[in-house]
Design goal:
The protein is α+β, with helices and mostly antiparallel strands. The chain has one domain. Helices cover 56% and strands 18% of the residues.
């Protein structure tokens, strides 16, 4: 928002800073509804308890990665990256479909909400 002083010589700026907690809570509510509709019971349990912590996010991502590897996906990583922290990994060669299935089953909604909670 831009505002002018009475003498019009000084400009004052108010920066918009999103309320990260409110954004994360809205994301959690929406993700919980979708996870319930899809029957993602493990993700529902985490999301019902609140916005996921890094540990909950990391556990969900590790379950998804382990599942994808067991299904034959070639995955490098994960490695922790800042800011965040967040986990980064790569899927190469075949196995994209297996990865996507495992990610959806184990981590999709937890990841979405966790990412919303750390955005700055």
């Amino acid at each position: 928002m831009l505002s002018l002083e009475a003498d019009d010589t000084t400009l004052l700026f108010e920066l918009y800073v999103p309320d990260v907690e409110a954004v994360a809570e809205q994301a959690r509510t929406e993700a919980l509804t979708q996870a319930e509709a899809e029957g993602r019971t493990a993700q529902v349990a985490v999301l019902r308890a609140g916005v996921p912590s890094f540990d909950q996010y990391e556990q969900a991502m590790e379950r998804a990665i382990d599942c994808a590897r067991q299904a034959g996906a070639n995955i490098s990583g994960p490695v922790e990256q800042m800011p965040g922290p967040r986990l980064m990994y790569g899927v190469s060669g075949g196995g994209i479909a297996e990865h996507d299935r495992c990610y959806d089953e184990h981590a999709k909604y937890i990841d979405m909400v966790y990412q919303a909670s750390i955005e700055q």
